[in-house]
């Protein structure tokens, strides 16, 4: 298919999708407010968890380092709780369909990415939690309550799980990078309603008048 044919087919898809949205629901198909809130709270908590983890080594003194570890663990445990609740309520939630014109390979990639993201949102904090308990640390959440330790100390196993925790953190980061790139591709290149479905107040971009078929 030539480049101009590809562009016009992409525009046709986009126009068809906009028309279908407008007539079917009067608005773009969106995730529920609860799902959107949980998505963006999780994203913010992840940002804070990574930031705290990366700041630990450059802490000015041991007390500041301990505070950063405490904050890192607290954000991590919150992410675990939110991800668990989110997976449970997702089953009864309205999930906007992907654009019908999306190629199968991209559809599969989107599904695989979401599945892996959910998986790591559970596995990553669990690894941190298990390693911290095996290390014999007191896990205090947001400076208040301490979690009971369910595991007998084993420092050498804790060390190996912490190493894994570091690698899975990088894997999660790579998946998030691909996820964000895909969301921006949908919004700015395909100009469909995928990003709008997750972002309150955002609408799909309109097709500029000068390239309208
Ligand atoms: C999704 C949630 C989490 C993410 C993305 C995450 C990410 C990270 C990252 C990037 C590091 C630094 C690794 C390195 O320097 O090689 C780290 C270290 C660490 N994480 Fe997590 N983590 C999460 C949850 C948790 C939880 C729930 C706990 C414990 C309750 C925890 C405990 C730790 C500890 C103790 C360290 C080592 C800190 C140090 O350098 O002393 N993490 N984590
Ligand atoms: C930073 C950490 C992020 C994580 C862990 C994350 C995770 C997820 C997950 C698991 C889903 C699937 C929702 C479902 O169907 O149940 C999702 C959907 C979505 N996310 Fe994110 N997200 C993150 C950041 C972002 C950012 C920064 C953007 C925008 C630039 C974004 C845009 C979207 C969009 C548009 C959807 C709906 C379409 C889809 O399922 O891919 N996300 N996200």
Question: How does this structure look, described?
Answer:
- The protein has 213 residues and is an all-alpha fold.
- It has a domain of 137 residues.
- Helix content is 67%, strand content 2%.
- The chain has five helices and two strands.
- A two-stranded antiparallel sheet has the order 1-2.
- Strand 1 and strand 2 form a beta hairpin.
- Helix 2 runs antiparallel to helix 3, helix 3 crosses helix 4 and helix 4 runs antiparallel to helix 5.
- The radius of gyration is 21 Å and the shape is elongated.
- Bound molecules: protoporphyrin IX containing FE (HEM) (2 copies).
- The site of one protoporphyrin IX containing FE (HEM) has 22 residues, from helix 2, helix 3, helix 4 and helix 5.
Write down the secondary-structure element order: HHHHEEH
DSSP strand content: under 5%
| Tally of alpha and pi helices | 5
Query: Overall pLDDT, averaged?
Result: 87
The biggest sheet amounts to: 2 strands, antiparallel
| Helix and strand composition category | mainly alpha
Helix content: 55-70%
Span of the ends, CA to CA = 17 Å
Q: Could you say which small molecules are bound to this protein? A: protoporphyrin IX containing FE
Q: Uncertain runs with pLDDT below 50, 5 residues or more?
A: 1-26, 208-213
Number of strands: 2
Strand order of the largest sheet: 1-2
The coarse silhouette is elongated
How does the SSE layout of this entry go?
Blueprint lengths: L2 H23 L7 H23 L6 H29 L13 H31 L4 E2 L5 E2 L7 H36 L23
Antiparallel strand pairs: 1-2
Helix pairs in contact: 2-3, 3-4, 4-5
The structure holds protoporphyrin IX containing FE (2 copies).
């Amino acid at each position: 298919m030539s480049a101009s044919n590809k562009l016009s087919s992409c525009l046709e898809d986009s126009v068809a999708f906009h028309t279908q949205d407008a007539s079917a629901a009067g608005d773009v198909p969106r995730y529920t407010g609860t799902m959107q809130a949980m998505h963006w709270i999780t994203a913010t908590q992840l940002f804070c968890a990574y930031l705290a983890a990366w700041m630990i080594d450059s802490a000015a003194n041991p007390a500041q380092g301990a505070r950063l570890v405490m904050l890192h663990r607290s954000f991590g445990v919150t992410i675990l709780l939110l991800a668990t609740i989110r997976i449970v309520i997702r089953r009864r939630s309205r999930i906007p369909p992907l654009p019908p014109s999306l190629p199968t390979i991209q559809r599969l990639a989107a599904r695989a990415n979401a599945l892996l993201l959910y998986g790591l949102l559970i596995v990553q904090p669990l690894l941190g939690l298990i390693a911290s308990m095996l290390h014999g640390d007191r896990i205090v959440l947001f400076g208040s309550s301490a979690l009971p330790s369910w595991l007998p100390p084993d420092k050498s196993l804790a060390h190996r799980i912490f190493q894994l925790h570091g690698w899975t953190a990088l894997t999660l980061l790579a998946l998030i990078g691909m996820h964000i790139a895909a969301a921006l591709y949908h919004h700015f290149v395909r100009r469909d309603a995928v990003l709008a479905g997750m972002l309150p107040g955002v609408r799909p971009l309109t097709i500029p008048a000068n390239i309208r078929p």
